[in-house]
């Protein structure tokens, strides 16, 4: 069966899709926070994973 509410919550967030400021990938979801020098920006899932890999 289909899921009628898929993606409804993220699509309410402004600018949820665009170009990642770290890797310059185009048309990706920018939902994960990245903090650098006290500034918080949203990055793609891959950049977020690389940042928190430790």
Q: What is the distance, rounded to the nearest whole angstrom, between the alpha carbons of the first and last residues?
A: 39 Å
Number of helices: 1
Classify the beta-strand content into a percent band.
Answer: 25-35%
User: Residue-averaged pLDDT, rounded?
Assistant: 88
Structural class: alpha+beta
The geometry reads as elongated
Q: What is the β-strand count?
A: 4
| Estimated helix fraction | 10-25%
Number of domains: 1
Q: Give the neighbour order of strands across the main sheet.
A: 1-2
Order of helices and strands: EEEEH
Radius of gyration: 13 Å
Low-confidence stretches: none
* Major sheet details: 2 strands, antiparallel
Task: Name the features.
elongated, about 55 residues, alpha+beta, two-stranded antiparallel sheet
Topology:
Elements lengths: L16 E2 L9 E2 L2 E5 L2 E5 L1 H7 L3
Explain what the structure shows.
The chain is of the alpha+beta class and 54 residues long. It has one domain (10-51). The chain has 1 helix and 4 strands. The protein has one helix at 45-51; strands at 17-18, 28-29, 32-36, 39-43. Strands 1-2 form a two-stranded antiparallel ribbon. β3 (32-36) and β4 (39-43) form a beta hairpin. The longest helix has 7 residues, at 45-51.
